[in-house]
Fold:
Amino acid sequence: MSRITSLVGDITKIEADAIVNAANSSLLGGGGVYGAIHRAAGQELVQECRLLHGCKTGQAKITSGYRLPARHVIHTVGPVWRGGDEGEPDLLASCYETSLRLAAEYSCKTVAFPAISTGIYGYPADLAAGTAIKAIRSALGDLPGIESVMLVAFDEQAHAHLVKALKRKED
Ligand code: APR
Structure:
């Protein structure tokens, strides 16, 4: 069975060893999935984020999950979509890869991702789904400890892109 699955839901409700947050490079403040995760986790999450001194685009940092059902939150910073010729696909792939490597370092077996960059940052959801799945497949090749990666779409339309990309053969 594939280690990668997709579902429609609210990532703040997912019981995984780690959920991934789509943050900005300050790791402090935001709406979208960031706002939902911080509301559900409580004030302690932003306090820990202040100690991290930000994060570069394409990189990831980890904290505790506080009041979330998830044990950890991995904060990654996706690229802003500028048309696709400014390194966006490599940066987006790097978000997924570095998040999974960090999860493995912290012995996480189950990891849930939102569709990074596809909201406020404007990355087209179909392209983002393809890049995400390719990067996850490639990273899982040498991360045997990660048993399950859940891709959490916020609505049916976003989910359809994931389903389509998951059906595609390795490209
Ligand atoms: N669960 C799952 N997915 C969610 C949830 C949720 N509770 N809330 C929003 N989403 C989805 C959005 O529908 C979108 O598809 O997460 C995806 C990412 O959207 P954004 O949160 O806007 O993230 P992003 O596009 O990466 O923009 C990051 O937004 O909040 C600010 O500080 C953050 O500046 C940064 C920017």
